[in-house]
Putative aarF domain-containing protein kinase 5
Amino acid sequence: MWTDWLALTFTSGVVVKDEVQPSSTTRFTTAVPLYNHAVQHSYNYLRPRLRVALLGVNYSLLPSRRKRNVKSVVGSLIRFTRSMRIGITISMDYLIAPVLGYTESEIHRRSADRIVQGCLQNGGIYIKLGQGLAAVNHILPREYVESLSILQDKCLIREKDEMEEIFLQDFGKKPGEMLRKIEPEPVAAASLAQVYKGTTLDGDTVAIKVQYIDLQDRFISDLKAIVHLLKAITVVHPKFDLHWEMIDTLRMELDFENEGKNGEQCAKDLKRFEYAYIPKIYWDLSSKRILTTEWIDGVKVTDVEGIKAQGLDLKDVDNKLITLMGEQIFHTGFVHADPHPGNVFVRKGKDKKAQIVLLDHGLYEHVSEKTRQTLCNFWESMVLRNDSSLKTFAQDLNVEDYILLAEMLTQAPYTVSFTSYSNNTLDEYMKKRAQEQFDKITAALKAMPKSMMLVIRNLNMVRAIIKDHGDIINRYRIMARIATRGKYQVTKQTFYKNIKGIYSIVKFEIRIFCNNLLQWIPKVYLTLLKLFGYDIASILQTL
């Protein structure tokens, strides 16, 4: 027995005084306490390890779904602890670092890097949260925007058999039973899902969007941790309280059936535009965690070389994109809230011109009729420089500072003409303005109708796309035209409303023409002076 060997080992090491060998009774009496001590020591040593081993055996015997539940609980505790540590560290850094001589920029950079690292380690909806924060780059410090932008191309590393398991859970069949072919490796991956290319039994090429299998399990617990993390940020900036918007958006994006319905509604709303395309949904191959759509061959809207390689005009692309987004904001009130470059594809249409393909309809915003009408009036007044009307409509949106609201919507200073501007100077101005008015901006976001948050997100993402293309169109004027028409778009249209709408549009176009003329005349005058040898710089200094 191993216990006898253990006793012998311990007794053999006993040191005995003198050279007289003890009797057998003495040896036995000495060995018993050592034996008991050895057994107790071994038991204490082995007990926690045996428990871990037994837990491991029990875990290995659990069905796969129960295993995920266990992993979800344990993982949630780890992610929660990590999130709280990051939140506390950031808060303390903002409180203590300035005293130690660190600049605000250095603190912003460290804090942003900590958030990015935490999102990457936690994965899933944490990455989605980071992407959501990056989307409000019109109010975040530059250091946060630069660091958080890393998350746009990050995703979870998943096990290869997940797709088969989720098909079995949602359909009771393996992918091979429902599809003729499916590529083993994903063609794209994001924070919530992976996309595979496949072929239906009827021979159609499709995109199969498969949600990460454990997201539903870990959603509630992770959501609580995220709320605490956002509250930690609020400690640093008391008015930067964005969890009231971000949490709801996370819930919506996890339901792929809702995403499919949103896509079909979008297609219905934009059907009068031949250059707008929404991929077809295959409902027999879709569930809350799997969405199968028509496969689209195209390029991202920011792939300038790819667009030009198709013989398409960038100006045409920008005009069409602005028109579609304006239609949603000012006419239908059903707004795509995540039109980042990965969700907007461009391809050649039947007319050989650019066709805009809108993807990923998981996040939409319903704008109420009252808010839509007010927004139409505000935008028109903004372009026409009607300050009295602008102030009234801003108050209707619960914002007192109408100039601040105008700049939030356009991301350009209100003092600069919306029909002519230089983006290099405007960008610098807006960055400085955002830092100076940070508290006012966040207070305005919280005060205005909830739907406005995602409308501003849409406007900001589209603005970034247009900027990448070189700002070759005037987005303000295009949006204002759409807004002017949207003012008179109501459910029950009357003859009087139609006439009033036409009159308003004509008046708007005349006003824009006059503004352009007033800007053109000084430019022509200065050009002529230069041709005749006058010193333009000296003339401008005297003005």
